[in-house]
Amino acid sequence: MTVLNDAEENNKRSILKLQRTARFFEALLRASADGIVITDAAKNIIFVNDTFCKFISCNRHNLIGTSIFVWLEKLSSNANEIWNELESQTKKNGIARDVEFRMNTDSDTRYFTVNSSLLEHVDIEETGLIISIWQDETERILTEKALAGAYAEKMEIFKAIVHTISDAVFWLDPEGNFIYVNESACKSLGYDHDELMKLKVFDVNPRADSARWNAVVRQFRKEKVFHAESIHRRKDGSEFPVEIVSSYIKLDNKEYFCGFGRDITERKHAEEFISRRNIQLRILSKAAQKINTVLEIPVIMQNLITSAMEITDSTAGTAGLIVNEKIVFSEYNENGKLFPIDYVFKKGYGVPGHVMETKSPYISNDARNDPYVIQDIRKTLCFNNLANVPILDRKGQMLGSFQIHNTKKHRQFDHSDIEMLQGLASSAAIALENARLMEDIRKVGKEKKSLSLILDKSLNEIYIFDSEKFRFTYVNSGGCKNLGYSLKSLRSMTFLDITPGYDEVLFRKYITPLIQHKKKKLLLYTDLRRANGSHYPIELHLQLIEQEGSHLFLAIIIDITERKRAEKALSLSEEKYRTLYETMAQGVIYHNESGTIISANFAAQKILGLSPGHLIGRTSIDPMWKAIHEDGSDFPGEKHPAMVALRTRKEVRNVVMGVFNPEVKEYRWIQVNAIPQTRYAETRPYQVYTTINDITELKRAKDEMQLANEDLRIINKIISTATGLLDINQILDTVLDECIKIVGLEGGTICFVEPDETLKLGAHRSTSKETIIDLTTNKIRIGECLCGAAARDLKPLILPDREAVIKFATREATRKEDIRYHAAFPLITRGKCVGVLCLFTRTDKKPDVKKLKIIELISSQVALSIRNAQLYEETKEYALTLEKKVAQRTKQLHESQLGLLNLMDDINKTAVELDKANKRLIELDLMKSMFIASTSHELRTPLNSIIGFTSILLEGWSGELTPEQREHIQIVNTSGKHLLSLINDVIDISKIEAGKLEVRVSRFNLKEVIDEVVSTLKQELNGKGLLVIIDVADMELNTDRRRLLQCIMNLFSNAVKFTEKGEIKIIAKSTNNEIEISIGDSGIGIKKEDIPKLFTPFVRLDSPLTAKTSGTGLGLYLSRKLTQEVLGGTINVESEYEKGSIFSLRIPREVKI
Amino acid sequence: MKILIIEDNPQNMKLLAFVLKKYGHDVIEAFCGLEGVEKATDSHPELILMDIQLPDIDGLEVTKRIRAKEPVQKIPIMAITSYAMAGDREKVMEAGCNGYFEKPINPLTIMKDIEKVLEMKKP
User: Fold this and answer.
1) Which residue, of A214, A744, A963, A1024, is most buried by count of CB atoms within 10 Å of its CB?
2) Does the pLDDT at position A574 exceed 80?
3) DSSP labels, A235-258
4) Which of A682-691, A983-992, A1073-1082 has the highest mean pLDDT?
5) Residue B80: its chain A contacts at CB < 8 A?
6) Nearest CA in chain B to A996
7) How far apart are CA B106 and CA A1016, in angstroms?
8) Element (H, E) at A977
9) Is pLDDT at A705 greater than 50 in this prediction?
């Protein structure tokens, strides 16, 4: 047997304990997904779990007992260092956290995070054991790295792409700092790369500030895409308009905003130009009509001025005609008001004079400093810039000119203004020519020859034909020449023969206003046919003239071939802008051979409202598009132009589709062309490119225009009615009637949605009684039957035939109705469905799709009205309820108030009473005290003298007394004493009753008191020959001595009084805290029936001794009172008539105050 | 002994004076409080018998005044009264009286009673 010393023994025991503990935890630790190792102070592994063994692919047995270093070294070069660090930290702090290890095993690298702590045992303080927990982080770390790599790669590719594109690309962080900018961005803003990177978005966008940027960031986070027009400012301070499309990207938990900016200066200019152009062209054609349908020269000039002012948006203008080689301006139009003026210019004088010389238009954008401008005139008329245009006839002769001015700040007049004005000028020239011609004709009158002379002079073609058959009576040389007919041949032809565009019916229609003299002149455009069959475009001025009593038509015809050509050239250049614009706005998408989108240009993204990420990889069959036809029916993916083009290998053009744009959250209409592209020698297309044009606005405009005025009127009526009413029933009735009228059906219902998600029937027309009963008693739930479905899906449900209706109608009553067409429109306001409007027919009529659209348009308005009416009802009800509640509460309050008031009243009254009572009591009390005091004093004072002096006399201090004198004085003395005792008793009783009896507690010897009592009545005792036996122990009492004496005295004197012979025994017995003093006598005793009367005041018992004895009748009453009130005890009596009595007084030995 | 009696009722005064003289003491009579204080200071009695109910200033006040005067401070004062209220005794003793007797006094025992009280009070 080996003997181990204590320490070793202990150690061994400790280790055993630990091992047992370890084994206990083993079961738990074994299952752990983390590796667990316990090492001792010598760095040996004493425990290791399965997971750790797996980590380092080693067997448990090989691990336990060996140093951990051995294993760490094998797996990683610096593992030992790290372990030492871990150990020292654990020893110092008790724990070590998140220490990272990397282990290179045969197959791979693994990453671990190790947490360790000191392992302590209850019995042993320092074991030096460390438990380390190894978490395998490999997966996480590798994934992170991969992701980081992936992102980094993507970033690189992205950067490579964007670096060279022409659009500016910016990457911003949430604070607005530039994280990345491409070359174009730098160029467009005029900064170099480093400069720009130091800036923030606020520095380049004058519209952005922190607040706006933050708002944008917020929107970004929500919508992920941002698209707007804005302004950028270059380094030199100049600004230009941009279109920005940006997306929100989150990488590595960091937010980025990636934006593409495109300089849209050109586009904006083009837009402005085109819009201005369109306006001007419109005005121009209007002006031409105005000028050429009047005959009076002054009116022509006035119209000219007003048109010129309108076209150029100028404030003033004037026009003048050349008379005697001078141009005279006699009328001035300023802001629509006409003023007479008198300015005459000759060649070379002023601007008009200058124009007379040059015969070309003149612009002055700075009239003040213009050498040609007559400054006096300028000051008078106050203009800043001007444009003067000559009116030239076909021969190039100047007929006059007109001038427009601006007095307020105005854009510069430019060449396009001049073009417009020149157009006006040529119209005016023609009009003036015609007017002059007419004047001449009138002057000439009937003379044919002169007439033909005049007419032949004109450069225009002039035709005169009769008003009935339109046969030519005269054609001038110009006309004959151009047509290629001789006058003779023409005389046998009619006007209609040369106008291929008119037949008799049409022509008569046009000329009616002339014949009816409603118009003086007509301006028409058509073609003329030459003799050789060719056509040329003409402007036709038609008038009615009278000649030799008959009505004839005078047609002045202007060959506008040249003009048309010029116009075409003009429109071509417009076309250039338009094409540019449209190209910019045209979206282009490429699909591969299976129809998958492989790329989409910027415009396509914008139109569809989708980022490249959303587009690329999708096919046109993807339901995400929610594509629809114009009539609202679903557009199946296979029918998408791209798919069709792929299948048919042919171009597909002009397909109109509606696609849902998630950015603006509405449907956009697009016009799609799909062009398949095949490679050489292949049959199947390898890709399709589709162009998409957003035609939403166009379509919308068309749609809107298509709404007849009548429809608009009805809509307005409904809307104004609905919004003007607050009574729900009225609204429903009115709306339903109008809607039925619009669609031209005969039946309809309106239900509204109740809070419990059922539909309540409101208005109804042409609904069978059965259905009404059914819908009222058994309300439709949302989702049920026809209207329920619309309410659920929040979109119109159109069932175009009986079968469809029956399919959807779940209610028996509805099925029986034989409805052949049913349209249900949900009435939605604020995203909430408040009701359903159903329109139906039992006939085979089908309503116009456009009419249904109208219903849809107004449905939201109706919904709003219903909601308002409902709210109104609710509010009314609530107000009523509130009113009732308030009234109730007021009443309650009132009642409780009254109750309160009454209570208060009572309380007050009682208080007053109490007060009075209190006062009375106080008075009473005072009176009692005074009574006692005065009684005491007044009654006693004389007695003092009586008793005092009689005592002196009896002592003989005043001299000898005769026996008789002695006897008499003795009587006085005794009476006095008697009276005194009476008074004392009365006063005592008064005091007791008033509660004013003083109690004086002191310690005294009982025997002394007894002795005093007995000795006081010694004389009487001796006189009667009575024996007194005293059996009183020597004891101390702590109570009111005086009163005790008084009581004992009373009892003893009674005993003496009522005993003739025998003895009186005074016995004092003490119990715990009490003392009983009994005075027994052998006197006359008391009858049983008299005992109750004993202690009552002023009652003396009838007895033979009554007359003999003196007594007040108060003695026992007072004694009992005193005993009870002062001494805290009782007096009792036992008596036998003629045998004797025992009065016992029992009191506590210690009186507690 | 020189005894001062302060008593406003003449009959009571006569009684007291007669008794005290019978015992062989000298008696000084004062019929009101102020007279009592005066005679106390002037004649320096060895004992004062004083009725509490006096017409001008009451016995308590008299006591206070006498006790306030230097030479006569220590003269024993016996109060005689027919006041029967609680707290009377205390008031009297507090004021500075040495003893308290209730009327009617027993002329035969008065002196003994006074001596008893004085004895008890002797240090």
Assistant:
1) A1024
2) no
3) TTS-EEEEEEEEEEEEETTEEEEE
4) A1073-1082
5) none
6) B86
7) 14
8) helix A963-994
9) no
Q: Which residues of A touch B111 (CB under 8 A)?
A: none
Same domain (yes/no): A760, A637: no
Which chain A residue lies closest to B106 (C-alpha atoms)? A948
pLDDT exceeds 80 at position A1124: yes
CATH number at residue A636: 3.30.450.20
Convert the pLDDT of each residue in A654-668 to its tens digit.
788 888 888 888 888
**Which of A268-282, A308-322, A467-481 shows the lowest mean pLDDT across its residues?**
A268-282
C-alpha pair distances (Å), A115 with each of A1, A36, A53: 44, 10, 17
How many degrees, rounded to 5, is the angle at CA A804 between CA A803 and CA A810? Answer: 95
Are A202 and A84 in a shared domain?
no
Mean pLDDT, residues A1049-1072: 88
Determine contact, residues B2/B48, Cβ cutoff 8 Å.
no
Report if residue A348 sits inside a domain.
Answer: yes
CB of A951 within 8 Å of a chain B CB? The answer is: yes
Q: Which residues in chain B touch residue A945, judged by CB atoms under 8 angstroms apart?
A: 11-12, 15
Q: What is residue A862's predicted lDDT score, i.e. its pLDDT?
A: 77
Are β-strands B47-51 and B2-6 bridged in parallel, bridged antiparallel, or unpaired? parallel
pLDDT band at A1; cut points 50, 70, 90: very low
Pick the last residue of a domain from A507, A532, A567.
Answer: A567
Nearest chain A residue to B19 by CA distance is: A952
d(CA A53, CA A981): 119
Total of domains in chain B: 1
Examine the pLDDT at A342 and tell me if it is beyond 80: yes
Do A729 and A873 belong to one domain? yes
pLDDT tens digits, one per residue of A58-83: 888 888 888 888 888 776 777 788 88
Measured in degrees and rounded to the nearest 5, phi and psi for residue A1149 equal -70, -35
Residue that finishes a domain, picked among A90, A116, A136? A136
Residue A4 confidence class, pLDDT cut points 50, 70, 90: very low
Q: Which residues of A touch B19 (CB under 8 A)?
A: 948, 952, 957
Whether residue A271 lies inside any domain: the answer is no
Work out how many domains chain A is built from and give that number: 7
Q: What is the pLDDT of residue A670?
A: 85
Domain assignment of residue A811, yes or no: yes
Is B12 close to A949, i.e. CB distance below 8 A? no
pLDDT of B109 strictly over 80: yes
Query: What CATH code is carried by the domain that includes residue B33?
Result: 3.40.50.2300
Rounded Cα distance, A957 and A803, in Å: 154
Asked if the C-beta of A88 comes within 8 angstroms of chain B's C-beta atoms, the answer is no
- Note whether B107 contacts A: Cβ–Cβ < 8 A: yes
Q: In chain B, what residues touch A1016 (CB-CB under 8 Å)?
A: none
The residues with which A37 forms a beta bridge, in sequence order, are A48, A132
**Domain housing B14:** 2-121
Percent of chain A with pLDDT over 90: 9
Phi and psi, residue B24, nearest 5°: 95, 20
What does the pLDDT look like over A811-820, one tens digit per residue?
777 777 788 8
Is residue A174, in this structure, part of any structural domain at all?
yes
Exposure of B109 by Cβ count < 10 A (0-12 exposed, 13-18 middle, 19+ buried)? exposed
Say if residue A330 is in the same domain as residue A391.
yes
Averaged pLDDT, A906-930? 79
Interatomic CA distance for residues A979 and A1081, integer angstroms: 27
Its domain, for residue A725, covers 708-877
- Strands A225-233 and A239-251 come out as antiparallel
For A981, the closest chain B residue by CA position comes to B104
Q: Considering chain A, what is the average pLDDT of its residues?
A: 80
Per-residue pLDDT tens digits for A284-299: 777 777 787 777 888 8
* Residue A604 and residue A671 share a domain: yes
CA angle at A261 for the pair A255 and A266, rounded to the nearest 5°: 170
